[in-house]
Amino acid sequence: MSPDRVERHPILEVPAHPEIVEFTFDGRKLEGRKSEMISSALFANGIQVFGRHRRDGSPQGIFCANGQCAQCLVLADGLPVKACITPVHPDMDVRPIEGLPELMADDAPVYLRREIPEVETDVLVVGGGPAGLMAVTELGAKGVRCVLCDDKQVLGGKLSLQTHNFFGSVDDCYAGVRGTDIGRILEQQARAQKTVDLWTDSPVVGVFQDGMVGVLKQGHFTVVRPKSMLVAAGAREKALAFAGADLPGVYGAGAFQTLVNRDLVKPSRRLFIVGGGNVGLIVAYQALQAGIDVVGLAEVLPECGGYKVHRDKILRLGVPVYTSHTVLRAEGTDRVERVIIARVDAKFRPIPGSELAFEVDTVLVAVGLSSVNELFEEGRRLGMKVYSAGDSQEIAEASAAMFSGKIVARKILQDMGFSAEIPSEWLRIQAMLRSHPGPALGFYPPPREMNVYPILRCSQDIPCNPCTDVCITDGITIPEGNLLGRPQLVGDCVGCLKCVAICPGCAISLVDKRHDPSATVARVTIPWEMPEELVQVGQEVPTTGNEGEIVGTGKVVRILSGKSLNRRRLMVLEVPFADAEKVAGVRIRSPETPAVPEFVPPVTDDEVIVCRCERITKQMIVDYLENTGSRDFNAVKAALRSGMGPCGGKTCAELTARIFRELGVDLKAVTPPVHRPFTQEVPMKAFLVESEGSNRV
Amino acid sequence: MKAATEFDAIVIGAGSVGNPTAYFLAREGFRMLVLDELSSSGQGQNKAAIGGVRATHSDPAKIRLCQQSLEIFSHWKESTGTDIGWKKGGYCFPAFTEKVETTIKGLLPVQKKFRLNIDWLDAEGIQKVVTGISPDGLRGGTYSPDDGQVSPLLAAESFTREAVRLGAVYRYREPVKSLVLNGNAVVGVRTEKGEYRAPTVINASGVNATGLCQMAGLNIPILPDSHEGGISAPVQQFLDPLVVDLRPGPEGKTINFYFGQDANGQIIFCYTPKVPISGTNRNSTYEFMPIIAARLVEVIPRLKNLTIRRVWRGLYPMTPDGSPVVGKAPNVEGFVLGVGMCGQGFMLGPGVGLNLASLVAHGKPVVDREVFDLLSPARDLYAGKKEALK
Predict the structure, then answer these.
(1) Are residues A248 and A227 in the same domain?
(2) Tell me, what CATH number does A381's domain have?
(3) Rounded Cα distance, B83 and A228, in Å
(4) By CA distance, what is A110's nearest residue in B?
(5) How far is A622 from chain B (nearest CA, A)?
């Protein structure tokens, strides 16, 4: 059986000879890779159902892939562990959990020492993503003592999952550099600070009385007593409640990025994406890069909310985008086999009869992010000096998070009595980086009289300027004079291709009319980041315009690669002269005609799971709220156990809020859920400092 | 037909005591109003309880009331159709020291006198009852198989629902600002939203009880102190009884601790601090988990493989003599107290509620008057000796 692994990747490095470990699942001998997570090892072996829920036997698998829920629970050598954050060991005996796990009957006495380590510091930074890393670099430069905690083994946060060139500004936030590389750069900068301690594999699990903060430092409960705390814990994916959303094979786009881009696992053959924001659009592109077919993408609004350049590049590759469509249900026995979407009316209600069905094995949910700010709120409630930065403060692009980290660090320095200025320029750039894309205004047309020139298909105000920076003739400019405006070719072009190579939106092609004096054919160079084997030199390929419309065919003349291209390749096509300006891409898949299902019963509220941990349906919550008139999240928790499971309401709290709104209740009149430690479940062993010695309890 | 603001009785506090009291009075046909300052029922200290219910006390009144609580809880599903997580797993007090052995053996005569099903078991017997208990130093212990556990959350919810079904009106986010007095009689209450009238007002307001008593000119000193608790992720049922270890902890901070596995499979645990922590602070401390983790694995080593889900801190409304204050207020007409439960409000609640309802509706408690009067608000709250088994 061939394992479900990414064997080749156009951007990411695939280890040629990974170290193999043998382990068993349910007694079956399997191969995994050294120190990869159990979940990835199982996915790589085609296993996506990890157990069955104790309440109804429903299949359980990956959902968050981030250690936050407990849907991926397995028994590893007798202990229940989250498969997504537990590395697989040689000869590990992994078993599915059917119902409740049994507590291992290990009655050997425990020898203890009692000290729980306590660490004092000036600033505790929660989260080692773009905001946190920038902040400690800024704080460390002034000699401020910092402890930065991150729950992952590798710093960089979600940057380490981003294979694309970044938007933003070249001068200020590494625009044009790939996210994975930015993460490494930021980490190096932070590591260079002498007063900064970086703790990986160390989730912050609770804030306690007297401003003490509990950290699960590499498996051991450790207490940090900071003078102030900066929460830069990022965001979590919003969930969507639809029928079958709890089936294995439905999960977040971020979870998918973790599996594919971090662990190089191929969790799907054919997938469907729900949500046309930047995350959904980018992940469609990333799936294709990993050799996974993207059957379609649905967006409930009439237009995708993400950058148009992101949408256009997947349209060009042949991924259909269904705007004004919502997902009705995911169907399948034990895992997703089919997804049904429907067109919506002006009030976002599905229109009966408009349903479309797609045979897929995976449905990715990418319907937005919400701030992870519980520790900030708890810290504030406890009277701590707390700050937040990055997505914890406001959801935006990673480039904005970097700025936010710098700015908040300066604010902390000021509050500590340092002379530290916050340049107004920083605030201005931060505001731009946080801005939402403007309307599509059309792109500046190419100049007529030139023989070689780029077509800059950038038609929206978005914060991005690498093309203006790399142009060797300084021929590209943004007339508005700021980061947000659209670039225009105003000067010379020598055909150096640098703009084609760097444009984060893959929105620039180079037209070269110098090769054929008879003006029969011209050459067009486009950026190419898809798997190498898809297109070969000499091949005839279908060419598309900017938004995926078929133009004709082109012949691949060359595929350029090289160090200066930063792992992007450039495809040189020979196309009919008249097509040259139209061609913006090549199609790698033919959009299929989706099946029109005969009859789709309307989705009922008892098909929709709201609390995944405790299997609480929307109907149960609606009934409770209607029968009692309750205006209290905590009453729903107490009565139904919704939100009382291992994830602590991270998914269902927001979905329950939506139910309150649907019932016409103003959320301001609803008592919010009470948060108590721990923000994630902590093994008892973390609190037990075992010793070899005989100083018995 | 009465006005919307007129009731037969008003209960202040939708908690461990107030909910059963309202339910039993509603069952007597009383038109009930329940007021609470919080947003829903059971959101004060009720939900901080770990849910253990035992009749095996040493105080006769508590024994009798908790026997009734056990009767009510254990038949709740039959009578209402609602599962409130009743688990008849018993209580076990293991003895690892001579001192503990002497203490718990000393209580057996009183407990036997009240026909409680409790006995001393030798070490082997305790090992059969408490799966995985460390045999190291185990001398034996007492075991009372008729005690049990209930989910405080589900119980509050169910008492409320049944009371409402019987016509009780619950009003939330309405703290009582003052009592309506007529001479030396309480005839109603005032909140920010208005005035409610009833010939009987029942103070079941837990940690707020002292202030309400003062509104009636009564001095019932109830001072909260705090206790922390925690709960694990669920595992398959393996531990039947609630286990109480009466030894002080070697860390010098705990005088005893207790734990059990609830009907849901979760291990729920709590300790009693050596130095009481007075006040209403409910923020969790970082040291609770390390301290109790060490104690738990000492008694049952296999608990080291648990996963901890949540911790919290709840308040015990303490009286000077450590006993509840239950009955008609002295010298004030129409004012009834079910307060000062000293951390046992959840297990006492149904029994207290049943007796207060009978007292209000029929002028006498269900249990013997002389036993009931041991908890009388008219007693000298500073005279009594604290109960041995708290």
Answers:
(1) no
(2) 3.50.50.60
(3) 46
(4) B301
(5) 16
| Whole-number percent of chain B with pLDDT over 70 | 98
Kindly report the pTM of this predicted structure.
0.94
User: Are A228 and A246 in the same domain?
Assistant: no
Domain count, chain A: 4
Contact B306 A110 (CB under 8 A): no
Q: How many CB pairs under 8 A join A and B?
A: 158
pLDDT digits (tens, 9 = 90+) for B193-204: 999 999 999 999
Is some CB atom of chain B closer than 8 A to the CB atom of A221?
A: yes
Q: Is residue A135 part of a domain?
A: yes
Domains, chain B, with CATH or none:
9-68+152-222+321-375 (3.50.50.60), 88-146+224-316 (3.30.9.10)
Contact map slice: A 56-75 vs B, CB within 8 A: 70
Name every chain B residue with its beta carbon within 8 A of the beta carbon of A212: 285-286
Question: For an interface test with A, which of B134, B283, B287 has the most A Cβ atoms less than 10 Å from its Cβ?
Answer: B283
Nearest to A671 among B39, B132, B290 (CB): B39
If you average pLDDT over every residue of chain A, what do you get?
Answer: 94
Q: Where does the pLDDT of residue A69 fall: very low under 50, low under 70, confident under 90, or very high at 90 and above?
A: confident
CA distance A640 to chain B (A): 8
CA–CA dist A565, A587 (Å, integer): 22
Whether A209 and A166 map to the same domain: the answer is yes
* Residue among A195, A175, A125 nearest A155 (CA): A125
Contact between chains at A684 and B236 (C-beta distance less than 8 A) = no
In a domain, A11, yes or no: no
Q: What is the pLDDT of residues A623-669, one digit of tens each?
A: 999 999 999 999 999 999 999 999 999 999 999 999 999 999 999 99
User: In the 3-class helix/strand/coil scheme, how is A108-177 assigned residue by residue?
Assistant: CCCCEECCCCEEEEEEEEECCCHHHHHHHHHHHCCCCCEEEECCCCCCCHHHHHCCCECCECHHHHCCCC
Within 10 Å of residue B108's Cβ, how many Cβ atoms?
16
Q: Is residue A538 part of a domain?
A: yes
Residue A10 lies in a domain: no
Shared domain for A523 and A643, answered yes or no, is no
Angle of helix B345-362 relative to helix B60-74, nearest 10 degrees? 90
For residues A300 and A378, membership in a common domain is answered with no
Which residues of B fall within a CB distance of 8 Å from A637? 153
Contact flag B309-A101 (C-beta cutoff 8 Å): no
The ipTM, to two decimals, is 0.95
Interval A391-420: pLDDT, tens? 999 999 899 999 999 999 999 999 999 999
Per the CB < 8 Å rule, is A110 touching B234? no
Confidence (pLDDT) at A694: 44
Bridge-based pairing state of the strands B325-328 and A28-33: unpaired
Final residue in a domain of this structure, among A586, A613, A643? A586
Strands A569-576 and A508-512 come out as unpaired
Task: Supply the pLDDT for residue B387.
Answer: 61
Range of the domain at A649: 604-697
Closest-approach residue (CA) in chain A for B132: A107
